[in-house]
């Protein structure tokens, strides 16, 4: 007999920790089914709710739930083998996934490390940057420069490059290495015509301060880390692509490894297949995850240029020629097979057209137009100070903290699942959403905000 949602919630209480929540947090819903863009929920009172998933399960389920192509890929690989170790062995799903990633990524990112999760892929990127500098005879370059407002994961090395003041890891500051933090870039907005608007004076101030900091610290730095164009957990902060061009220039000037954390922004979410393409630059290392498997299984990847990889291959330096990381589930065949199918859905099956103009582009363009219209009424609410949209991302910023529990309940009652944080109510809907889905999303979210915050 399958337990009902209310019984599941009772069993969960005090047993399981959930992300960034106390053990006894009772503000949860049980998922009893998921299909397409909808979740079937049940609350502690036994009330059932059919809701549109405005979060794409934290930005990963871009094709929705139970997609036939992804289900088939998972079943097909299960019939062969679900996992083998990657040490000393290889297999078709991993090779095909790596080939596709190299084809899709900005030209020059030609080598792939398959990781368990986004955080781990960034950890590996940091290790690779350190090994690169060591191979170049610069073992003293052991720190990183990162943007204020950034978020790169919850593991120890990634916590160290998250914003040290406004980030989520200040409690662990004594355990994190001291890094160099560049100013938070000025805010920007992309117009419906595709141009970018921002404060010129703010941009000049940011550039001057950044150049001074990097000039002062370059001899001790291994690399620069950034979330390109959109800082997620830092407040859905959109900044000018020019920032990336300046960081690319400075990385070249000081031979620093430029790491682009595209975990959240990759695979079309910001309106380009990868967010660095808004600036026309190629990072030395790029990390991808979240949407990689369409939300089916945990998987991420780190890609790097031949210049970086060949430095390790030389074998110079104390760390030798191997990239020193090797997760047990590295290159998991099941995850890789589903990821290949997910990339086919995004870009069109191999050989059927240009990945840059694949189905994802029309889908995200429609999302952007729909979100602009659907969320616009929120600007008239009393406590809203900004409404912004970039690609398939919509954010409503309030002048104070969101009442997360009340707003979540009000949205669920209106048929919408969202997970607000800090002073933001934001959405990242599945790419498969229809125009009517997005219109309803806007009505539900604006109505919930008006009810809770006035």
Q: What does this protein structure show overall?
A:
With 454 residues, the protein is α/β, with parallel strands linked by helices. Helix content is 35%, strand content 18%. Strand 7 and strand 8 form a beta hairpin. Helix 3 runs antiparallel to helix 10 and helix 4 packs parallel to helix 10. The model has no long low-confidence stretch (mean pLDDT 93).
Rg over alpha carbons: 22 Å
Gap between N and C termini: 44 Å
Give the number of helices.
13
Residue runs with pLDDT of under 50 for 5 or more positions: none
The class by helix and strand makeup works out as alpha/beta
- How large is the share of residues in beta strands? 15-25%
Number of strands: 18
Question: Residue-averaged pLDDT, rounded?
Answer: 93
Strand order of the largest sheet: 4-14-13-12-9-5-6
Largest sheet: 7 strands, mixed
Question: Topology of this structure?
Answer:
Layout: H1 5-12, E1 30-35, E2 38-42, E3 48-53, H2 56-59, H3 68-78, H4 92-104, E4 109-115, H5 118-135, E5 143-147, H6 156-161, E6 180-182, E7 188-190, E8 196-198, H7 200-217, E9 221-226, E10 230-231, E11 237-238, H8 242-254, E12 257-262, E13 285-288, E14 300-305, H9 306-313, H10 333-347, H11 359-375, E15 384-390, E16 393-398, H12 404-413, E17 416-417, E18 424-427, H13 435-453
Parallel strand pairs: 3-17, 5-6, 5-9, 9-12, 12-13
Antiparallel strand pairs: 1-2, 2-3, 4-14, 7-8, 10-11, 13-14, 15-16, 16-18
């Amino acid at each position: 007999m399958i337990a009902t949602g209310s019984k599941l919630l009772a069993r969960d209480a005090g047993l399981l920790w959930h992300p960034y929540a106390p053990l006894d947090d009772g503000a949860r819903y049980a998922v009893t089914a998921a299909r397409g863009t909808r979740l079937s929920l049940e609350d502690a009172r036994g009330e059932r709710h059919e809701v549109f998933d405005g979060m794409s399960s934290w930005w990963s389920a871009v094709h929705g739930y139970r997609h036939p192509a992804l289900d088939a890929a998972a079943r097909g690989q299960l019939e062969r083998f679900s996992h083998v170790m990657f040490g000393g062995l290889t297999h078709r799903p991993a090779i095909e996934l790596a080939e596709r990633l190299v084809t899709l990524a900005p030209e020059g990112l030609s080598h792939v490390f398959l990781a368990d999760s986004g955080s781990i892929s960034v950890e590996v990127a940091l290790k690779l940057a350190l090994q690169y500098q060591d191979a170049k005879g610069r073992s003293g370059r052991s720190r990183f420069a990162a943007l204020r407002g950034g978020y790169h994961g919850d593991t120890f090395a990634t916590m160290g490059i998250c914003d040290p003041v406004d980030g989520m890891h200040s409690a662990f500051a004594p355990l994190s290495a001291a890094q160099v933090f560049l100013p938070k870039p000025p805010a920007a907005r992309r117009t419906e015509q595709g141009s970018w608007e921002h404060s010129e004076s703010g941009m000049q101030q940011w550039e001057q301060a950044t150049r001074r900091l990097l000039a002062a610290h370059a001899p001790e730095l291994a690399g620069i880390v950034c979330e390109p164009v959109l800082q997620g957990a830092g407040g859905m902060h959109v900044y000018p692509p020019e920032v990336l061009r300046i960081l690319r220039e400075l990385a070249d000037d000081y031979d620093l490894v430029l790491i682009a954390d595209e975990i959240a922004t990759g695979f079309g979410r910001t309106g380009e297949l990868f967010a660095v393409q808004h600036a026309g630059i190629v990072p030395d290392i790029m990390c991808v995850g979240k949407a990689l498997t369409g939300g089916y299984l945990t998987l991420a990847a780190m890609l790097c240029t031949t210049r970086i990889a060949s430095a390790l291959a030389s074998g110079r330096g104390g760390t030798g020629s191997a990239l020193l990381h090797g997760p047990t589930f590295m290159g998991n065949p099941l995850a890789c097979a589903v990821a290949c199918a997910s990339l086919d859905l995004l870009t069109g099956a191999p050989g059927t057209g240009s990945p840059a103009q694949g189905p994802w582009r029309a889908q995200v363009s429609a999302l952007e137009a729909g979100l602009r219209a659907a969320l616009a009424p929120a600007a008239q609410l009393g406590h809203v100070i900004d409404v912004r949209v970039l690609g398939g991302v919509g954010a409503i910023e309030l002048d104070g903290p969101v009442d997360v529990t009340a707003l979540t309940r009000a949205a669920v009652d209106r048929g919408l699942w969202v997970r607000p944080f800090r002073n933001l109510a934001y959405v990242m809907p599945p790419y498969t959403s229809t125009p009517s889905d997005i219109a309803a999303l806007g009505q539900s979210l604006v109505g919930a905000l008006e009810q809770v915050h006035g």
